[in-house]
Amino acid sequence: MFEILNNIEEKENINFHKPGNNKSVFIETYGCQMNLADSEIVLSVLSNYGYNETNDINNSDIILLNTCSVRENAEKKIYNRLNVLKSFKKNNPNLIIGILGCMAERLRKNLIDKQSIVDLIVGPDEFRKIPGLIENLIETGEKGIAVKLSKVETYDDITPVRKDGITAFISVMRGCDKFCTFCVVPYTRGRERSRLHESIVNETRRLFDDGLKEVTLLGQNVNSYRDGNFDFADLLEMCAKAVPQMRIRYITSHPYDLSLKLIETMASYDNICKYIHLPVQSGSDRILKLMNRMYTIEHYKSILNKTREAMPGIGLSTDIISGFPGETEDDHKLTIELLEELKYDGAFMFAYSPREHTKAFEMKNNVPDEIKKRRLSEIIEIQSLISTNLNKNLVGKTKEVLLESVSKKSDDFLMGRTDCNKSVIIPKGSFKIGDLVNVKIKRTNSATLFGDVV
Ligand code: SAH
Ligand code: SF4
Ligand code: F3S
Q1: Which of helix, strand or coil describes residue 360?
Q2: 153 vs 162: CA distance, rounded Å
Q3: Which fold has domain 398-453?
Q4: Which one, of 216, 169, 204, 137, lies nearest residue 41 by Cα?
Q5: pLDDT above 90 for 407
Q6: Predicted confidence (pLDDT) per residue in 310-356, tens digit
Q7: What class does CATH assign to 5-146?
């Protein structure tokens, strides 16, 4: 085994087998939307070298797992998956198994040392090297590792290979410089860098011409997007203006730099969806400080109130971490009170998971697992009640819904979303994916609305 890292500069000049190569690649994506967008970039890089994507894992030559490290459970999933893949490798010793993304970046060579079935380890800034690493592996049997983080790589010139559908993700920036003390992302994804605004606007336009109806602009912290003098509000406005019939969403915002200008921009364009995911993490200023979140609850509430004033009825969701080191029962109560006061439409709630190398990992006063779990279930219960009640108020109302896909539960139903990001299920009838329809809501639960087109 050797580390391709040191040798890659010369290897880049070698002409790898271009078209004619008939190897098939199966890629499985874990983690956040950034990873979904990254898998589309990986497929694009590979297709330029003649590789074909397959949906049939049993007949693939290469299996790639694009991984997440954000919590221990996310990594456990991959270890379990690798256990299953052992039998695949036994049946086909030529099968190539690669780990891409955040876990590759975090664990690097250790992952290959511990998991002998893994042949490739490629971090999020090194996807261009995958074809070379595969070629080298086939020729020499040497396993490949490429995990350098870049200050400039944005894959701006690569057109992602997207699945058919009417919605798409466009990643507008990569990396994160916030260094929240619990979070592994700045270590796995490196420094913040933004794509050029022209290229993002052009991509939005091109997707519209291809028949897409909605794009989501992606970044770990889109509010720190910067291209010369243009900030994220400018970018959003440029996209909204360039394609007025395209629905435009974005995730994720950090409360520290969500600007009034962005709120005004959102309010000014009908095609910018009225939905913000604004992770608060905790209701306690003391804990927010320990998390290095750089805002107070007072500041957070003032942004949220301004957002609601500017866009009444806007959909809002958040992330909560329960059981951060040193979190007391009083801190936990403050989080519950905040949820009760702000009444988010939805929330993603997690038990704190210690991540090596982060600042919080070194902190004392870890909350015992049972207490973490109990607090988490209290939070989930309260939020679920809030979401259920908010949704109940929608019964009898009519909402505009963009139909996105067939319902996961039945082919006789379609799933769409409102502008405010609520999922809606309707009987399929003669409607098709891509239709924008008015739906009268008949019944609801905490996560979904059900209705009929009127
Ligand atoms: N960039 C986004 C969040 C990315 S990670 C933001 O800052 O809002 C998504 C969510 O995972 C975070 O908001 C946080 O709630 C959760 N998370 C991150 N690290 C975690 C950890 N170590 N343990 C538990 N939850 C964590
Ligand atoms: Fe992680 Fe904080 Fe960056 Fe979000 S803003 S990715 S939570 S460090
Ligand atoms: Fe996970 Fe990496 Fe996204 S750690 S949440 S896949 S940025």
Answers
A1: helix
A2: 20
A3: OB fold (Dihydrolipoamide Acetyltransferase, E2P) (2.40.50)
A4: 169
A5: yes
A6: 999 999 999 999 999 999 999 999 999 999 999 999 999 999 999 99
A7: alpha beta
Under DSSP, is residue 347 helix (H, G, I), strand (E, B) or coil?
A: strand
Tokens of 372: 């973490």
- Residue owning the nearest CA to atom 24 of ligand 1: 352
Per the prediction, the chain carries an average pLDDT of 94
Residue whose tokens read 């919590």:
71
> Is residue 254 in contact with ligand 1, taking CB distance under 6 Å?
yes
Q: Do domains 5-146 and 398-453 have the same CATH topology?
A: no
Looking at residue 224, the DSSP 8-state letter turns out to be G
pLDDT tens digits, residue range 139-172?
A: 999 999 999 999 999 999 999 999 889 999 999 9
Give 101-112 pLDDT, tens digit per residue. 999 999 999 898
Neighbouring-strand partners of residue 173:
194
Burial class (CB in 10 A: 0-12, 13-18, 19+), 81: middle
* DSSP per position, 25-75: EEEEE-SSHHHHHHHHHHHHHHHTTT-EE-S-GGG-SEEEEEE--SSHHHH
Cα of 124 vs centre of ligand 3, distance in Å, is 10
Ramachandran category for residue 193: left, alpha or beta (phi over 0 → left; psi -120 to 50 → alpha): beta
Q: How far is the CA of 224 from the centre of ligand 1 (A)?
A: 17
Of all ligands present, the nearest one to the C-alpha of 294 is 2
